[in-house]
Backbone:
């Protein structure tokens, strides 16, 4: 299986890439590759294939945060895209080998009515997350995106909002089963499931979010100890 | 601000775009034989009479009306409305999460939607909410 991740700017250090590789190595039990699309390959371990992130920026925009993930699917038929700020802590082989054309995270940890439906008409809701996505030739999604790019770019600040309002709304998406993915900033250090996300980006792209959100490197010492154990030995 | 109720009764077919809750307008208008519907994708309107639970920007919808009343312009991409149709455009500059088109003036509304003839325009006391009532330019370029 081919895994993909993105790293640009200085928000996340190269250790995030290196330990992501280590997490896959430990919990995906088949041959794999990890490709990192980045603007700076310094410090990234040599097992990781490096590509220029500009290869994914065909629309030349600073809107639609992480739209680059969509372009990945034009360049690669099948794979798993992973955010850097996730911690893999149990077997992901069956998830990565899933046959769905597009499977992403449904935020089971948030009450749908209170956190999403209540604000739906305001355009401020989002109940999906693209930190761990399996894709396998989702031609419908690539076509819809290209056909509607002007509207998408104008309307949405993030990829997740686009996917939620246009594709979740029309029941086009599949989601990981409840219990496989957890959110550290909701569930804490117990790390339920197989993968834990930290999900902090919405705090920076939306007004009025007061939540005290923790990044992976700021997590409880037991969590960071596990994360650091994925360093190259 | 503009008195929608008075204006609506001058038309036979009216479409509200992204209006949130206008059930009172819709009920009164249809009771008086004005064919009035609303396009709003919020699921809370999925079973509300006279609502079509669709996104008029991205979904395939019928855009045939004499008057379009587009409330919450700040939340939507500026679609091309039919040439020659009358429009009421209402938007604000509150910049809430989910607002992609903050509206700072009547002229901005006119330019965004290619309004040719303007019948009326104005704003509230605080100059946060703006409206334009007019006709989509028959000879617009885009």
Residues:
């Amino acid at each position: 299986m081919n895994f993909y991740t993105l790293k640009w700017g200085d928000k996340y250090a190269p250790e995030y890439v290196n330990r992501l590789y280590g997490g896959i190595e430990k919990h995906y039990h088949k041959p794999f590759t990890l490709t990192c699309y980045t603007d700076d390959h310094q410090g990234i371990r040599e097992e990781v294939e490096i590509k220029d992130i500009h290869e994914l920026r065909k629309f030349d925009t600073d809107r639609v945060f992480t739209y680059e993930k969509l372009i990945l699917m034009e360049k690669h038929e099948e794979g798993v895209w992973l955010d850097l700020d996730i911690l893999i802590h149990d077997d992901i082989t069956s998830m990565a080998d899933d046959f769905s054309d597009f499977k992403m995270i449904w935020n089971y940890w948030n009450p749908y009515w209170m956190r999403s439906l209540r604000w739906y008409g305001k355009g401020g809701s989002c109940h999906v997350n693209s930190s761990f996505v399996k894709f396998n030739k989702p031609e419908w999604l690539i076509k819809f995106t290209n056909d509607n790019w002007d509207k998408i770019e104008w309307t949405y600040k993030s990829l997740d909002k686009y996917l939620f309002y246009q594709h979740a709304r029309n029941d086009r998406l599949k989601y990981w089963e409840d219990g496989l993915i957890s959110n550290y900033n909701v569930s804490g250090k117990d790390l339920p499931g197989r993968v834990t996300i930290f999900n902090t980006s919405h705090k920076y792209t939306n007004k009025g979010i007061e939540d005290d959100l923790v990044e992976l490197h700021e997590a409880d010492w037991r969590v960071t100890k596990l994360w650091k154990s994925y360093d190259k030995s | 601000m503009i008195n929608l109720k008075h204006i609506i009764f001058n038309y036979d077919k009216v479409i509200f775009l992204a209006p949130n809750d206008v059930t009172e307008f819709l009920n009164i208008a249809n009771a008086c034989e004005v064919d009035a519907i609303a396009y709003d994708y919020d699921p809370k309107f999925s079973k509300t009479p006279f609502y079509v639970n669709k996104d008029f920007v991205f979904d395939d919808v019928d855009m045939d009306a004499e008057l379009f009343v587009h409330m919450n312009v700040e939340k939507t991409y500026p679609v091309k409305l039919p040439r020659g149709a009358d429009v009421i455009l209402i938007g604000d500059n509150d910049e809430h999460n989910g607002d992609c088109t903050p509206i700072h003036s009547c002229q901005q509304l006119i330019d965004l939607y290619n309004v040719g003839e303007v019948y009326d325009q104005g704003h509230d006391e605080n100059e946060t909410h703006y409206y334009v009532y007019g006709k989509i330019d028959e000879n617009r370029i885009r």
About this structure: Chain B is about 15% helix and 30% strand. The first helix of chain B runs from residue 4 to 8. The interface with chain A takes residues 20, 40-44, 55, 57-58, 75-78, 95-101 of chain B (CB under 8 Å). The beta strands of chain B are 13-17, 35-39, 51-52, 67-70, 86-92, 115-123, 129-136.
